[in-house]
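Handoff note, outgoing to incoming analyst
You'll be picking up this chain. Sequence as last confirmed:
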Amino acid sequence: MGGTTPNPTYEEVCSGVTGHTEVVQVEFDPARISYERLLDVFFRTHDPSVPKKAQYRSVIFTHNERQEQIARAAIERLRQSRGRVATVVLSAGTFWRAEEYHQQYYEKNGMSRRSTVGKL
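Most recent structure output, in case you need it:
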């Protein structure tokens, strides 16, 4: 998400020339879990201090003004408690799904991704 090339390949995204960021698109029911809670999980499982590095930059893509306000407030609270935060907030654009060979990467490559957050 976030780049200029329509329907980029994984190799193009990795090259750093498309401007895209590797993302996970999360669809959720706000009646069951709040956006604030999702951000809390994001910041507990992701290092927000990592500076921009091609497709692995720390970014939150928002879908509306309310999400943007909540995300910016969460980042500000994090800055006050931790200091440096490289995470940026941008308006969501088109979500381009990675090719099938890159889906379920950990499972396909014999790696384990154990959750560190438990149940949401």
